[in-house]
Amino acid sequence: MTKSIGVIGGGQLARMMIAPAQVMGISIKVLAESEDSPASLAATQVGDYKDVATVRAFASTVDVITFDHEHVPLDVLETLEAEGYEFQPSSKALRFAQNKLDMRSALTELGVPCPKWAKVQSSEELDEFINSSGSVAILKTPTGGYDGKGVRVVRSSADALDWLAKREPLLVEEKVDFVRELAQLSARNKSGSWSSWTLVETIQKDGVCAEVHSPATSSNGELAAQIAKTIAEGLNVTGVLAVELFETADGRLLVNELAMRPHNSGHFSIEGSKTSQFEQHLRAALDMPLGDTAATKPFAVMLNVLGQNDTNTFGLVDRMVDGASIHVYGKSARVGRKMGHITALSDESLEDARQIALKVWEGLQA
Amino acid sequence: MTKSIGVIGGGQLARMMIAPAQVMGISIKVLAESEDSPASLAATQVGDYKDVATVRAFASTVDVITFDHEHVPLDVLETLEAEGYEFQPSSKALRFAQNKLDMRSALTELGVPCPKWAKVQSSEELDEFINSSGSVAILKTPTGGYDGKGVRVVRSSADALDWLAKREPLLVEEKVDFVRELAQLSARNKSGSWSSWTLVETIQKDGVCAEVHSPATSSNGELAAQIAKTIAEGLNVTGVLAVELFETADGRLLVNELAMRPHNSGHFSIEGSKTSQFEQHLRAALDMPLGDTAATKPFAVMLNVLGQNDTNTFGLVDRMVDGASIHVYGKSARVGRKMGHITALSDESLEDARQIALKVWEGLQA
User: Fold this and answer.
1) What tens digit of pLDDT does each residue of A340-360 get?
2) How far is A41 from A39, CA to CA, in rounded Å?
3) Which among A2, A18, A23 has CB closest to B319?
4) The sheet that has B4-8: what strands, in order across it?
5) N or C: which end of chain A has fewer CB within 10 A?
6) Of residues A24, A27, A320, nearest to B292 (C-beta)
7) Which CATH architecture is the domain A116-174 placed in?
8) Are B25 and A328 inside 8 Å of each other by CB?
9) How far apart are CA B360 and CA B324, in angstroms?
10) The domain at B178-365 falls in which architecture?
């Protein structure tokens, strides 16, 4: 019996699920936002994922529904779950990826180390938190943020008058003095099997992931995996779970963000791991046995290819240059947009892998 | 500029071109025979590839057209080439893969070693050849044969009265006393760059490929590559060229068959080579630089998964078992049908890879 999976969202994450679905003989369908989405090849419907009737029509064509992003409204998911449609992850798990205040509460309850945080709604509450936290803090809108959006460094409530004016709860967190940012990727299937990849280091530039180094130069691999497992089990996550972490100078790990879907920090796994995050996400959502996440080479570096201007789409490039792989997402060009990525593997060192990837990147710009 | 490629035929070869097309940002479209073909995900048209209007309509939607099989009639290709549509390989090359008499003439002219052969049309001609070749020969219909069809062992013209009755030319060949069958896979792009994979051994069962071992236990690797290059250049082949070879007890190589498309003997390259035959075929057809064909592991074994009955579709299987990969083609089940394949890699030996693959195969039947 061929199983079918539906993916809500037609971005590059859905696009990269297509190849493993084909290999495994899984029928894949995509509900895309537009006709020319990166995952258009598998798009069977174009429509608004916020509209319950649209999502219902799509859900009725597949066995299980999963996600390219976490923006489907919770009430849409809850309504359709009550009608018997199966979402993986379910609304019960996904709410913690959608709402950062709910996430902080749940993680604190699970004993997972987080930055100091508070829910604030007034200038007074915010200023009090800032004053008790070294005169600076990170303010976040609980929902809707990504790639640095919905996040602001604040030194006084005056820096957030526009957000406070909405009189909705905000999440404020201490500004963590971290030495590096890490990501722990893992996956959990419906039956509860759980499997992690190696801990990776993520290098952000202007709030957007620029590079991922696998493995991270950190001795916290076991602790990170333990944190990820606690979260996956505690929140009943199914599919891929990405846990973004801060590592402090004194060696502590603090959870920054969660994503319950394949994640930019895991793109290296397509070449760098025996089972990619995209295959594993499908396996987990369909409750298949999880694949082996062992590394194929000791070192992997991924570089995001961001749009440099509004014309270069980086289409039809020479993918295989000195052992690096270029992935092209098929998007129209825009400055700063994630247009694709480059992964390079090495037996020697992270620096060796990085140099290979950089050389390819330079070739792309020529 | 995103390039688009059209594939005529919706079988597993077209299906396996989808993943590399997505990675490279190439738009891929398929003209399929039926709605539920293995490559249905990329099918933009369902129709008869023998009908020139159907093929023209499809060709007009893409930059370059290539093939999942070699059955598109030559006059259809020639008509559309004259109208300016670009086929890779072109009709000038493809005719040698379509017609075995033309192939034998051309290879003989190129000095490529072939079994002793003749064109015969009458009982007398056939019996004369058989008598001069040790009382047994291989008789082939020049066109339309595959997987053992259109091929017959004959000891007298009485064994082929039905074919002779059609009064059309037949190809008769000596029955080669071979010690093993080999396949040399290579690819050539429009600009003339050529690149080969390692020589592999193919193990046939009932006229159908059952196993492929890479590398072949043969010392004829260089000679095989040289033969393949002579053919690719001599016949102006673009895309993947598979040269099936006999190896004789005295170490000679004789060309058995040609295919100008990805080939069953090259499926191991998806995991076993840095560039798979499917990616390379797209690169060659679109005149991109060819990828690196170095092996990812020293040994690879591929087993075809043939239908055992009319119900087991081998869908949704546990792909990653002890390092082996299962590929499912998404076909309805039929006895003897190629339903998928298993590839196992090993650092140790061919036998080690084979045992891993066999273990997975046994698991599939459980």
Assistant:
1) 999 999 999 999 999 999 988
2) 5
3) A23
4) B43-46, B27-32, B4-8, B64-67
5) C
6) A320
7) 2-Layer Sandwich (3.30)
8) yes
9) 7
10) 2-Layer Sandwich (3.30)
